[in-house]
Amino acid sequence: MITAEGATTVLSGCVAASSPYFSIVERNDAGHWVLCKSIANRPLRRQDAPPVYDLNGAVYAWRRGVLGATNEVFNPDAQLYVMPPERGLDIDSHFDFVIAEALIARENG
Fold first, then answer.
1. Which residues are CB-neighbours of 82 under 8 A, at least 6 positions away?
2. How many Å apart are CA 41 and CA 68, to the nearest integer?
3. Across all residues in the chain, what is the average pLDDT?
4. Which is the most buried residue in 14, 45, 64, 103, by most CB within 10 A?
């Protein structure tokens, strides 16, 4: 992707299970809970919301000189390598580790 598409950065991610247009909320300055992002025609189902992706940390690739030139991981010339969720698990909790172990056990028969 870096050479074929001229990207300066390639990161990997998976289709997100939650959506900031439908089910991810934050508290606004007035203390009210609101959707993180809004669009004109709010979807009635998460599946109808615009696709969003979770970065999974499996792939981080930069062109030489780009990484040190800014403190930003994402830049305008970045590309996303979309992978199946079972190929790029984030292990941030004990539950995540249990899921990873179960997937490995299933693969090994």
1. 12, 13, 14, 15, 53
2. 40
3. 88
4. 14
